Amino acid sequence: MIPAFQDITSQNHAMKRYYKFQSKIYDKTRWAFLFGRTNLVHQLPIARDAAIRILEVGCGTGYNLHNFASYFVNAQLVGMDVSEDMIALSQKKMEPYSNRVDLLPQAYGERPLLREESFDVVVFSYALTMINPQWENLIEQAYKDIKPGGIIAVVDFHNSGNPLFKMHMKNNHVRMDGHLLPVLENKFSTLSSDVQRAYWGLWEYFSFVGIKPYR
What we know:
alpha/beta, seven-stranded mixed beta sheet, 25% strand, globular
């Protein structure tokens, strides 16, 4: 297991340091292994013209926000990332949709969000495997912030049977133990859940779309 950060402050400082450099090469390199991101928007059972609110936690350079904003033409979006360097890149990418997007340089759950804390969709894209051990807290926070009947959409690393690769990912702050999917499937009503192999099985990644039950 990847060594856990003792508190959220240590976690946030580590992520800020990591992305100080990584932000400069992120879009040039991540296409080669962050699979499943492009299809995520098409997995949501929501009309393109629906007036919805979408939150992406760990929005990075704005790759997913741009896809969601262009597809859901009446959506209001909030992007959140602890790295100011990544938020700066998101701002540039989201300029065509600036009237529909709020970008927040902060950790999820650190302080209240803008407007009412209620979303139709919360997105995590290759974020939860980097938040250790607080990933479960983020899922709980998302559950609170999603409207009853709203959706969580997640794409992330799943697991690897290669010890050397797992060590490499551990050195880049990524935990790959298949730990996320069972929790998501237990917390939300599953719409779709899929595990795919990458590079002939060097690792697996998953996508999950679930609904917060009405209670």
